[in-house]
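Known limitations

Structure tokens in this collection are predictions and should be treated as such. Users comparing against experimental data should check residue numbering before alignment. To illustrate the layout, the record for PORR domain-containing protein is reproduced below. The input appears on top and the generated tokens appear beneath it.
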Amino acid sequence: MQRNSMLFRLNQTRGSSLLEQNDVRQIPFVKCGYTWVSIMHKSSGGSRPKKKIYCREQELDRVMDLQKKPSLILKLKSIIQSQKHQSLRLRDLEKEVGFVQKWNYMAAIEKYPSIFRVLGGNGRPPAVTLTARAEKIAAEEVNAREQMEPILVKKLKNLLMLSVDCRVPLETVEFISMELGLPSDFKKSLIPKYPEFFSVNDVDGRVYLELENWDSSIVTTCREERLARERALETGGYPKKARISKDGNFPGPFAFHLSFPAGFRPNMSYLEEVQRWQKMEFPSPYLNARRFEMADPKARKRVVAVLHELLSLTMEKRLTSAQLDAFHVEYRFPARLLLCLIKHHGIFYVTNKGAKSTVILKEAYDGPNLIDKCPLLAFRDKFVALCGRREINSSIGTPS
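Generated tokens:
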């Protein structure tokens, strides 16, 4: 069975339970992404369950398409800047990016003369460098990095506070470092700079980044900050006889913002269950996960909140399936993490566009465009705009 068949075809009844897994039948294991999962379907009393299509959202799929060229431009910029004389001999390009990718970079050099220029001749080997205009804008990255530092310190503290022991393997932090916006040398340039917050320790032969002091001032989640902006928390809860919303959204302090795909048509029983789920209280993601049993519906809703918070900490509000799975132990994620993401398709979107399957936080996007951008993303957009693209949604996965 192909990978796409698992991601985008789920057999379940139209009004299947959003929270419970009682009275279910198990179908064979299917492989998807990086983990094996068993999909459970609601029994329909002996009748054959209806097929439910996991709807693709083309605008969110475009997020991955739009980042390809900016990613290439930004990586070539970083390679050129890392050279001793701020220029790269074309014959050395293959050493940096490989034989296959070399041709894509050569095409970019030729296509974007406003960013890259080729020097050489008179016996000198041809080399590529940045144009004067590109160099001027590239110099602004230093200021963007300075603005990012306090943001990154807070993000790292949040990242560690979400874990059960306030520590995460250093290799896991490195795995998502570019998505967080960390500099490539953060282990030397950032971590030692804040010994009052972070320490690097060996635990049972594995190197961990640990939190030195708990910071109660930053335990407000991004979801709660959004609700505060919308004044939802000032209502004192939710109305006792609130009308059932057709889009699943609910004005309560424990609600998540939902955005169902255009092709999804939920019936009334489904919407009623969504509303019950939206009303349900749940523990803070920053409380220790060991205190809760995963069988408890409130604990399962808390897992959704942890996923939401983790994605919110990244610059582009998205991570690959492998990156999420890297936090499985420290965050006590359920065994069927992918199924959890697909079940809550109003909050998360799983796309197979690109080289790896990617999980996107839907509320962070307006169509294919990221709504809020940090200083580093704003700089990258400005640099890539030199090529003439009007709307940029650049990739984060570039060297610093």
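For this record: Confidence is low (pLDDT under 50) at residues 1-51, 390-400. The chain is about 35% helix and 15% strand. Please report discrepancies through the issue tracker.
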